[in-house]
User: What shape does this take?
Amino acid sequence: MIIIDSADTTPQPWRNGRGTTRELWAEPAGADVQWRLSLADLTEDGPFSRFDGVERVFTPVDGGGFELTVDGRPHPADRHRPIRFPGEAAVTVRGLAEPARALNLMTARGHCGGTVHVRRYDGDITWRGGVRSLFLVEGRLTIGEAELPRLGVVVATDAALTGVAEDALIAEVRIFCDAPRGAA
Assistant: This one.
């Protein structure tokens, strides 16, 4: 397992320069990414960057109560509620009353798919069956001997993740991929 503290990652500007994001994990590393998990900082209303060939799952984790307009259709951006949309869509943040943060999962269409489910846990727990990472929204989560920081992520390198949760709100990220790009 690999643990990443979002506070230790460097904010990078969005492609369109209208916000910043902290890349938490990309697999495989490099230019031909099949899936990527990041934490976006939203500070003003405006458009999202376009990502052709990508499916996105946007989950507000701090702030909320604003709206995403996806290809002209409004979607309430409620805290902890994932919103799925294609990377080619015209997406705009509207009604942002305070800074917000969102977990952003991107998967390469036709190669990978993914889901985000936010759940509260207390006690011993084991995650299996495609759970590739866990993002701690609030509370406490210990995996093995390591305690995750708030807004930190653990990426599974084995078939399962086992831990102890104390009133923990956790975003479970499931990834489903075909054979790697370029593989025969």
User: Anything to note?
Assistant: The first strand starts at residue 2 and ends at 5. The radius of gyration is 16 Å.
